[in-house]
Amino acid sequence: MSQPGGTFDIVILGAGSGGYAAALRAAELNLTVALIDKAELGGTCLHRGCVPTKALLHAAEIADQTRESEQFGIKADLVGIDMAGVNAYKDGVVARLYKGLQGLLKNDKITVVQGAGKLVAKDTVEVDGKRYTGRNVILATGSYSRSLPGLEVDGKRVLASEHALKLDRVPSSAIVLGGGVIGVEFASVWKSFGADVTILEALPRLVAAEDEEISKAVERAFRKRKINFKVGKPFEKVEHTENGVRATLAGGETVEAEILLVAVGRGPTTANLGYEEQGVTLDRGFVITNERLHTGVGNIYAVGDIVPGLQLAHRGFAQGIFIAEEIAGLHPAVIDEAGIPRVTYSDPEVASVGITEAKAKEQYGADKISTYNYNLGGNGKSQILKTQGFVKLVRVNDGPVVGVHMVGARIGELVGEAQLIYNWEAFPEEVAQLVHAHPTQNEALGEAFLALAGKPLHSHS
Ligand code: NAI
Questions:
Q1: Which residues participate in NAD(+) binding (predicted)?
Q2: What is the DSSP secondary-structure string of 299-313?
Q3: pLDDT at 7
Q4: How many helices (H) and strands (E) does the chain have?
Q5: How does pLDDT run across 137-161, given as a tens digit for each residue?
Q6: Residue 182: CB within 6 Å of ligand 1?
Q7: Is 47 a catalytic residue?
Q8: Whose CA is nearest to atom 12 of ligand 1?
Q9: Can you say whether the dihedral through the CA atoms of 243, 249, 252, 255 is positive or negative?
């Protein structure tokens, strides 16, 4: 017999970025919340995604800087990568943030429930025989690492990203299946740590969701870093060899390595959770909602990676806040998916907001848009850092900038200004008036806007 667990303003199933953000905002708005998760609070991003991978990428940057220190006149030898030390640093970062999050969620208004929940009625989630009833329910169950039919992830030779994050050694060689965000980030880390890396990507280019010129720049940089990649051919199969794996591509070409990382996308975690039984519409596993994130069933909302679109933690945060405010009757503005900033933290980094040149041509007509590329060669701070890359602006003629695309070391930090420009629909002439500090990489963005406004300083128009 199931017992009552309590009645709340909101019952949230899943305490990842989307779920916990909804809980925190709801509590601020004096709503009572049950926040249910079978694993640790913080979900994929904190424990198995964004945070630990970025710690690895930072360690990778230090390895590269040590290796290349001579070009700055500093003599240093890279004697090795101590993976136990790298993992201790990475785990320490996660542990501190986890502790902080637990502290934030210790709120009178939030009841944290540990256990696997299932939607058993339109307003009820059951956990270990206890029923938590909500005047509103938020589905926030996140995503898992997908694989391909017949490709078995064993966690030893064939890994998903959660296994790759826990490796206790640097592999001598690695195949990375998928040249999307996870693929290029891990390829970048392992190369910096000294592994021989080959990326296999079915689409014609790496980071294929980005503007085409950005892909070209990443490919150029990866070639220079001697990261191998094969694009345009789908993967066919993987076999175990004596000491590792052999991957075969369509057409028969093979690549061998010690391990293979599967990075072909993440699927929504929505199976066997009672969603369909309660009438929630799923499309290939994703929960279909309206633009206000309502499922159309009872008072059930959905947030984060289970909702079709960008699978990014900060999108989850924004959606979680949105739903809490919606439930509180604050009528928040709908989130513009294109206005969500995107950063890939490989070396070089990629950052973008808005739409690509190809998409803009499709949307506005080829003769209605113009683009401008500002090369980091003209940017003092980028020269100091010895990085190459550019800032590309896509503008509707006589209108606002609808896409900002950037590539280069540390360029991800520039996305803050880029997203303000995009989301405020700023005209180049308006941005050109703003003073950018010298010498910063941020200035590259300012220079690009000066040029687009017809008054370039350190570039030719
Ligand atoms: P993804 O969708 O970015 O890339 C997967 C890639 O695998 C695609 O380019 C696809 O063409 C390729 N692929 C699929 N089937 C293939 C096949 N049979 N043979 C060869 N290639 C094949 O997905 P990814 O990289 O796994 O990341 C999952 C999610 O996690 C993404 O939505 C991403 O946004 C998010 N994420 C975000 C990060 C960030 O913001 N920095 C970091 C890591 C992940």
A1: 178-185, 201, 265, 305
A2: TEEE-GGGSSS---H
A3: 98
A4: 13, 24
A5: 999 999 999 999 999 999 999 999 9
A6: yes
A7: no
A8: 178
A9: negative
* Cβ–ligand 1 contact at 186 (below 6 Å): no
Give the rounded distance of the alpha carbon of 457 from its chain centre.
Answer: 34
Q: Which domains does the chain have, with CATH numbers?
A: 3-145+267-337 (3.50.50.60), 158-264 (3.50.50.60), 348-452 (3.30.390.30)
Region 304-312: mean pLDDT is: 98
For the CA of 200, the closest atom of ligand 1 is 20
Task: Find out whether the peptide bond into 439 is cis, omega within 30 degrees of 0.
Answer: yes
Task: Show the tokens assigned to 112.
Answer: 């944290």
pTM of the full predicted structure? Answer: 0.97
Q: How far is CA 295 from the centre of its chain?
A: 24
Ligand 1 centroid vs 50 CA: distance in angstroms?
A: 14
Question: Within 10 A of 3 (CB to CB), how many other CB atoms are there?
Answer: 9
pLDDT in tens, 227-270: 999 999 999 999 999 999 999 999 999 999 999 999 999 999 99
151 lines ligand 1 (CB under 6 A): no
* Active-site option among 58, 314, 331, 438: 438
Q: Which amino acid is residue 199, in one-letter code?
A: I
Q: Give the Cα-Cα-Cα angle 397, 400, 406 (nearest 5 degrees).
A: 100
Crossing angle of helices 17-28 and 83-105, in 10° steps, is: 30
How many other C-beta atoms lie within 10 A of the C-beta of residue 359?
16
Cβ neighbourhood burial of 252 (10 Å; 0-12, 13-18, 19+): exposed
Contacts 24+ apart (CB under 8 A), 458-461: 458/378, 458/379, 459/374, 459/375, 459/378
Q: Which residue has the tokens 């230090």?
A: 62
Q: Please tell me the distance between residue 388's alpha carbon and the centre of ligand 1 in angstroms.
A: 25
Task: Name the residue of 182, 207, 311 whose CB sits within 8 Å of the most ligand 1 atoms, as the mutation to test its pocket.
Answer: 182
Cβ–ligand 1 contact at 312 (below 6 Å): yes
CA angle 203, 206, 212 (to 5 degrees): 90
Q: What is the dihedral of CA 117, 121, 123, 128, to 10 degrees?
A: -30
Nearest C-alpha neighbor of 174 from the set 149, 204, 194: 194
